[in-house]
Design goal:
Rossmann fold; mainly alpha; about 950 residues; 7 domains; about 65% helix; 5-stranded parallel beta sheet
Length: about 950
C-alpha cells in the first residue's frame, strides 16, 4: 500500500495538535482516533508513534487484528514482550509467573493463572516502566483487540494515577464493508480512564485539494479536470479510496487510461482489486489475513501445500501492496483488504482454508478456532474435543472469557446424543463466565444444566454454583427455595443433601433454622459419607460451624478452621475473603489478638494485591482499620480506611466493616458529626435489614456518640437495641458485636438502671474468666465499679475500678485502660481522695493524649479542672513533643496535622495536654516557655 502520511501531515492539523498535547504531558492523557475505513486513522496513529519516539517516549505498540480477536493475550504479547526482560525479575512471584505464561515464555502449571493476577502483573509492569521512562501505549485497530488483553489493560489503567501513562489508539467505526466484530471493546478501554483525561478525535474526510495533492505527491498522477471532478465526487474525501482508484488508473495505458474506474462503493473497489490478484498473491493474502501473528515461515509452509512456488506467491502479494512485511511478521496491506478477501470466499473454499491452517498451527486455541470455522457450525465430536482443548489452554493462561467463548462453540458442535458431554461443557462454560464476571450468562447455563437432571456428580457440583448465582442474580428467596427442594426430596442422595445443608448454613433455609444447627447437621452427614465430600461445601459448613462457636463466646475453633483450610487447598481458586485464613484474620481481633490479626491481614492484603483480587481489598482494609482502632493506632487506622475506600471506588461496593471503622475512628478523633452522619445514613440504607448484624455496628457508633455528648437515654436505647439484635442472632462474643458493652454499661448506670448494669457486668466477667480475656474482665469490673459508685458504695467501687485498671494493664486495647483510670479518678474525687484522684486522672489524660482520643482528652481535662488547685507537671509524650515543636515554630493546627498525617482534632487534643502540662494558655506563651533541649532538638518536658 502507498502511504498517505504526506497528505495527512498537510491536512490533519487538529489531529496532530491533539497528539502533541498528549505527548507534552498536557491534558488529555489519552487520545482515541476514530473514523471510517480508509480515512487515514492508522497513518495518523503511526505518525503519532514516530513523534513519541522522537520525544523520548518508551513506546509500546500493538495492532488489533480480526484473526486475533478471539485469541488470548495476543495484544498484550505485542505490547509487553519487548520490555519483559527489563521488568520480570522485579515482579512479585505470582505476577512474574502469570506474565511469563501469558507471554508464552513458560508453560502453565496445574493451577490455571487467574485473570486478576495478569491484570496485577500488567499494573506492576507499567508502574515499573514509568519510574524510568515516559511511557506511551499505542494500539491501532483497537476494536479488534482481544478481550483478555483488554481486561488486563483496563485493570491496570483504572488503578494508575491519572496521566501516568499516555495512551494513543485508533479505532475503525462500524461500516458495511465487512463483517464487524460482535462486540467492540473500545468503549471498555475508554471507560477505564477519567472522562476529563480523554479526547476522542473523529477524523474528517480530506478536502479536495488534499486528495489532489495526495495523488500527485505519492503517485505522480495528474488527472484531467473531468477525471479529477469525477474522482473527488465519488471518493468523498477518503484517502484510501482515492489511492486505490489512482493505482487502477496508473496501471492503464492507451485509450483505457481515459476511462476513470470509480465504482459505486469502496467495498466494490476493494473487492475488484482483490479479484484482480494472481492466484498466488490472492492465496498469500488469504493466509496472512486468517492467521494469528502470521510469520513468513508459517505462511510459506501453508502455501507450499498448494503451490509449486510459495515464495513467488508471497513476493507477488508484497509487490501488489496487499501484504506488508516487517521483520518476520506479515500483515495485510490494509485491514480492508484482508476482510474483503476472507468475506468473498465461497463457503467451501473458506472451510478448506481453515482446515489447512488448523493442520499447521500448534497453539491449541488457534487450532480449535480454525477447526470450528471449517466445520461451519455443524455438530462434530472431534471439533468439540479440540475446542475443549483450546478452552483449557485459554483457562490455563488466565483468560476465562476466551475459554468460555470456546466452550460455547464446543456446545454448538457437540452432537445431540452426547448429553453428558453437553451438560459438562455447559457447566464448565458457566464456571468460566462466573469467573469472568458475566453472572447472568453463568446463571442461564447453570439453570439449563440443572433442569436436565445431569449425572449425580455433576449435579452436586452444579448445585453449589447455582445456589450462589441464584442468590445474587435472581433473589435470596429463590436460592433458599432451591435448597429446600433438595432437602425435602426423598430421592436426594446423601452427598447432595449434605451440600444443601452446607449451603443453607451460609444463606439460610427460609425456615429460620439456626445456621449453626444447619452447619452441624451438614458436618455430621459429610462424616457419614463413604466418599470424599465436596471440598467447597465441606469448607463452607466448617467455617460456619466455627462462626457459631466464636459467636457463642467459645473462642476460635482452630481445629475446624484448619480442616476448612485443608479442604480449600483442593480447590483451584477461592476468593480470599471466603478462606479459612481470612476468617482467622478477622476473628483474632475479636478475641483480643490484635497483633495476630494485623499480621494476618497484612499478609492477605499483599496477596490480594499481588494476585489482583481487588474485590477483597475494601473488606481487608476495613478489618485492618478496626484492628488498628482497637489497638489505639488511630492514624494507621485512618490510612487503612483511605486505602479501603480507594479500592471500593473501583468496585462500587463499600463493606459494612469499612463504613463502621471509618465512623468509629472519626468519633474517637473528635469528628462526631462525620461519625454520626455516616452511621445514620448507613442505618437508614439498611431499611428492612435493621435487625441484621450490620445494623449493630452502626447503632454502636451512634450510641457511643450519644454517650459522649451526655445524652444517656438515647445511648441506652440505641445500645440496648444493638445488644438485643446481636443476642437474637446468637452472638455473645463482645468482639463480634463491636464491643458495645462498655458504653452500654456506663449509659445504664448514668440512667439509674443499675440492675441491668449489674447483669451485664456479671456476664462479661464470667465470659472473660472462662476465656482468660483481661479486656472483657476489665470492662465488666469497670461497669460493676460504676454501679457501686452510683449506689454510694465508694470504697467498694474504688476497689473494683482498681482491679479493672490492673486487668487492662494486660490488655492490648489501651483506650479501655484509660477509661477505667478515668472512672477510678472520678470515684476517688467523690471519695475526696484528691491526690489519688489526680494521679489516676493524670494517667488517664496521658493515655488519651498518646492515643489522640479527643473526646476522652476533653473528659479527663474537665475532671482535672474540677479538682482545682496546683497541677502536677507531667512529661510530654513523644506525640505531644512533636506537636509542641511545630506549633511553637509558627505552624497552624491544620499545617501541623498535615505534617504529621493526622487530624486537626488530634492536634488540638495534644496541644491541650501540652498547655496543661507546661502551664501556658496561648501559642505565644508556649513559644516563649519552650527552650531548646540539651541536645538542641526541641522543648524541655518540664
Amino acid at each position: 500500500m502507498v502511504s498517505v502520511w504526506g497528505a495527512a501531515l498537510l491536512a490533519r492539523e487538529s489531529e496532530q495538535a491533539a497528539i502533541e498535547r498528549l505527548l507534552a504531558d498536557q491534558s488529555p492523557a489519552a487520545v482515541f482516533l476514530e473514523g471510517e475505513p480508509g480515512i487515514g486513522k492508522s497513518t495518523v496513529w503511526g505518525a503519532g508513534v514516530a513523534t513519541a519516539m522522537q520525544h523520548g517516549y518508551l513506546t509500546l505498540t500493538a495492532r488489533g487484528s480480526e484473526a486475533e480477536t478471539g485469541l488470548s493475550y495476543s495484544g498484550l504479547t505485542d505490547l509487553l514482550d519487548p520490555v519483559a526482560d527489563e521488568v520480570l525479575a522485579d515482579l512479585p512471584a505470582p505476577q512474574r509467573d502469570a506474565l511469563e505464561v501469558v507471554l508464552l515464555r513458560r508453560l502453565p502449571g496445574e493451577v490455571p493463572i487467574a485473570q486478576r493476577t495478569v491484570g496485577a502483573a500488567v499494573l506492576s509492569t507499567l508502574r515499573q516502566l514509568t519510574v524510568q521512562h515516559r511511557l506511551l501505549l499505542a494500539i491501532d485497530d483497537l476494536q479488534w483487540l482481544d478481550r483478555p488483553t483488554v481486561a488486563a489493560l483496563t485493570f491496570a489503567l483504572r488503578r494508575l494515577p491519572a496521566g501516568t501513562v499516555r495512551l494513543l489508539t485508533a479505532r475503525r467505526l462500524p461500516s458495511g464493508l465487512a463483517a464487524e466484530q460482535a462486540e467492540d471493546v473500545s468503549q471498555l478501554v475508554r471507560d477505564a480512564l477519567p472522562a476529563e483525561q480523554t479526547e476522542v478525535v473523529l477524523l474528517d474526510r480530506l478536502e479536495d485539494a488534499a486528495i489532489e495533492r495526495l495523488l500527485i505527491d505519492r503517485m505522480e498522477l495528474a488527472l484531467s479536470d473531468r477525471q479529477l471532478r469525477r474522482l473527488l465526487e465519488r471518493v468523498d474525501g477518503n484517502p484510501f479510496w482515492a489511492l486505490e482508484v489512482g493505482a487502477s488508473v496508473a496501471g492503464r495505458t492507451g485509450d483505457a487510461a481515459d476511462e476513470l474506474p470509480v465504482p459505486d462503493s469502496l467495498a466494490t473497489l476493494v473487492t475488484e482489486r482483490v479479484a484482480a490478484l494472481t492466484r498466488g498473491a490472492h492465496d498469500a493474502l488469504l493466509i496472512v489475513s486468517a492467521l494469528h501473528q502470521p510469520t513468513t515461515e508459517l505462511v510459506l509452509r501453508v502455501l507450499a501445500a498448494q503451490l509449486s512456488d510459495p515464495q513467488g506467491a508471497l513476493d507477488a502479494a508484497v509487490a501488489a501492496g496487499v501484504v506488508t512485511e516487517a521483520g518476520a511478521r506479515l500483515r495485510p496491506g490494509h485491514p480492508l483488504l484482508g476482510s474483503v478477501a476472507l468475506d468473498s470466499l465461497p463457503p467451501g473454499r473458506r472451510a478448506s482454508l481453515h482446515r489447512r491452517l488448523a493442520a499447521v498451527v500448534s497453539d491449541p486455541e488457534q487450532h480449535a478456532r480454525h477447526l470450528a470455522l471449517a466445520a461451519g457450525g455443524q455438530p462434530d465430536a472431534e471439533v468439540a474435543t479440540a475446542l475443549d482443548a483450546g478452552a483449557n489452554a485459554a483457562r490455563a493462561r488466565g483468560a476465562p472469557r476466551a475459554a468460555a467463548d470456546l466452550l460455547e462453540l464446543a456446545i454448538v458442535h457437540t452432537p445431540a446424543d452426547h448429553s453428558d458431554e453437553l451438560a459438562r461443557r455447559r457447566f464448565e462454560a458457566g464456571k468460566l463466565y462466573f469467573a469472568s464476571g458475566d453472572l447472568e450468562r453463568a446463571c442461564e447455563l447453570a439453570e439449563s444444566v440443572y433442569a436436565t437432571d445431569p449425572p449425580a456428580e455433576l449435579r452436586r457440583r452444579m448445585f453449589i454454583m447455582l445456589v450462589e448465582l441464584t442468590y445474587w442474580i435472581r433473589s435470596a428467596d429463590r436460592a433458599r427455595a432451591l435448597i429446600r427442594d433438595v432437602l425435602d426430596d426423598p430421592r436426594t442422595d446423601p452427598h447432595l443433601h449434605a451440600i444443601a445443608l452446607a449451603a443453607a448454613s451460609d444463606i439460610g433455609d427460609g425456615r429460620d433454622t439456626p445456621r449453626l444447627e444447619l452447619a452441624a447437621r451438614a458436618l455430621r452427614e459429610f462424616d457419614e459419607l463413604t466418599e470424599e465430600p465436596d471440598p467447597e461445601a465441606l469448607a463452607t459448613a466448617l467455617i460456619y460451624q466455627a462462626y457459631g462457636q466464636i459467636d457463642q463466646g467459645e473462642g476460635i475453633a482452630h481445629e475446624l478452621i484448619a480442616r476448612a483450610m485443608a479442604a480449600q487447598e483442593q480447590l483451584p481458586w477461592i476468593s480470599l475473603t471466603s478462606t479459612g485464613r481470612a476468617a482467622l484474620a478477622f476473628w483474632r481481633k475479636s478475641v483480643d489478638d490484635l497483633d495476630g490479626s494485623r499480621q494476618a491481614l497484612d499478609q492477605l492484603i499483599v496477596q490480594a494485591r499481588d494476585e489482583g483480587e481487588d474485590g477483597a481489598l475494601p473488606g481487608l482494609y476495613g478489618h485492618l482499620a478496626l484492628t488498628e482502632c482497637w489497638a489505639g493506632r488511630y492514624e494507621a487506622g485512618q490510612l487503612a480506611v483511605v486505602e479501603g475506600l480507594r479500592y471500593a471506588e473501583l468496585g462500587g461496593l463499600v463493606p459494612v466493616v469499612l463504613h463502621a471503622s471509618r465512623a468509629l475512628l472519626s468519633l474517637l478523633t473528635g469528628d462526631s458529626e462525620t461519625a454520626s452522619a455516616l452511621a445514620t445514613s448507613q442505618l437508614a440504607a439498611a431499611g428492612e435489614r435493621t435487625a441484621t448484624l450490620s445494623a449493630v455496628v452502626y447503632r454502636q457508633v451512634l450510641g457511643a456518640a450519644a454517650l459522649l455528648r451526655e445524652d444517656n437515654a438515647e445511648a441506652v436505647e440505641l445500645l440496648q437495641t444493638a445488644l438485643a439484635t446481636a443476642r437474637a442472632a446468637g452472638i455473645n462474643e463482645p468482639g463480634r458485636r463491636q464491643r458495645l458493652e462498655g458504653d452500654l454499661g456506663q449509659a445504664l448506670v448514668n440512667t439509674g438502671q443499675l440492675d441491668e448494669a449489674a447483669e451485664l457486668a456479671a456476664e462479661l466477667q464470667d465470659l472473660g474468666e472462662r476465656q482468660d480475656r483481661p479486656t472483657i474482665i476489665g470492662v465488666g469490673l469497670r461497669i460493676a465499679g460504676l454501679m457501686q459508685a452510683s449506689r454510694g458504695n465508694l470504697d467498694k467501687a474504688i476497689a473494683l475500678l482498681q482491679q479493672a485498671v490492673a486487668e487492662h494493664e494486660k490488655s492490648p486495647l489501651p483506650l479501655e485502660r484509660g477509661r477505667s483510670l478515668l472512672a477510678l479518678g472520678q470515684t476517688q474525687r467523690r471519695r475526696r481522695a484528691r491526690p489519688a484522684a489526680r494521679a489516676a486522672l493524670e494517667d488517664a489524660l496521658a493515655c488519651f493524649t498518646e492515643l489522640g482520643a479527643v473526646p476522652f482528652i476533653e473528659a479527663a481535662s474537665r475532671e482535672l479542672g474540677r479538682l482545682g488547685g496546683a497541677r502536677a507537671p507531667g512529661a510530654l509524650t513523644e506525640a505531644e513533643r512533636r506537636v509542641a515543636e511545630l506549633v511553637s515554630s509558627g505552624l497552624s493546627n491544620r499545617d501541623v496535622a498535615a505534617r504529621l498525617f493526622t487530624s486537626v482534632r488530634t492536634v488540638e487534643g495534644h496541644l491541650a495536654a501540652v498547655y496543661r502540662k507546661i502551664g501556658v494558655r496561648s501559642r505565644t506563651e508556649l513559644a516563649s516557655r519552650l527552650g531548646p533541649t540539651a541536645d538542641g532538638s526541641g522543648p524541655q518536658s518540664d
